[in-house]
Amino acid sequence: MQTDEPAARDAAAPAIVLVRPQLGENIGKAARAMLNFGLTEMRLVAPRDGWPNPSAGPAASGADVVLERAQVFGSVGEAVADCAHVYATTVRKRGVTKPVLTPERVARDIHSQAGKSAILFGPERSGLETEDVALARSIVTVPINPGFGSLNLAQAVILLAYEWSKGQTLASPPSEDLLPPAQQDELDGMIAQLETMLEPRGYFRPESRRAATTRTLRSLLTKPGWNHLEVRTLRGVLSSLAKPGPRG
Q1: Which of 38-47, 73-82, 171-180 is predicted with the least confidence, judged by mean pLDDT?
Q2: In 151-167, which positions are buried (b, 16+ CB within 10 angstroms) versus exposed (e)?
Q3: Which of the four CATH numbers 3.40.1280.10, 2.40.30.70, 3.40.50.2300, 2.160.20.60 does domain 15-166 have?
Q4: Global confidence as pTM
Q5: What are the residue boundaries of the structural domains of the chain, listed by start?
Q6: Which of 63, 75, 169, 179 is a good FRET partner for 126, with 20 to 30 A between their CA atoms?
Q7: pLDDT tens digit string along 209-218?
Q8: What's the CA gap between 112 and 14, in Å, rounded?
C-alpha cells in the first residue's frame, strides 16, 4: 500500500547506508522498505553500477523521495563521518569484538540517545567486510534460522526500519547534563593521530599483524562512546606526548 505523502523527517531517524550495493533494483526495493516506515535518508557507498541507476526507480514503487535524496560516498568512513552511532548488520562477528544487539535494542537506543545514527548494510552477495564492520560501534544480528540465514537487502532494511518505526512516539529527550557522543570523523582523527605517533616506535610490528592490531586498537577506542570533549582532551594529551621533551 502506498501513501500519498512521505513521512516527515525525524531528527532522530537513522541514515540507512548501503555499502557497495550491486543492483539498482535492490537499491529501489530498499528505498521502498525505508519509506514504508518513515525513513528517507539513504546513503550509498560506491554502488557497483554507479548512481543514479535507472533500475532503481521502478523497483522503489513510488519511494522516489528516498532515491532523489540519496547521497553517494566513496568510502564507508566518509558516509558515516557525521554519525555518533554506527551499527553494522551482519550474521557473523567476522573477528571483530563489538557489542551484538538485536534490531529491537538498536531501535530503542537510536530513539533514546543524542547524536546522528547510521545503520550499515553490506553488498548482496558477500555482506559487510571486516574493515566495514570495524568502523561500527555495535553489530546488529537478527535472530534467524541457523539452517538458512539468508536475507536479501530489502528484507534486512525493512526489519530495522520496522523496529525503529515502533518507537517514533516513545523517544525521550536525552539528559541535558550529558554531552552527545563524538562524531565518527572526530574519533577517526584521534585514532589516526595515535597511529601516526605509534608508527615510528615500532608498535605495529610485525607487519603481518598490522591489520589485526589496528582493528583491536580501533575497537578499544570506540567502545566507550566518548563525547567530543573527551576526544579533544585525549588528543591534547597525544599532542603533548608528540612534542620534544624539555632539554636539561
Answers
A1: 171-180
A2: bebbebbbbbbebbbeb
A3: 3.40.1280.10
A4: 0.77
A5: 15-166, 184-241
A6: 63
A7: 888 888 888 8
A8: 12
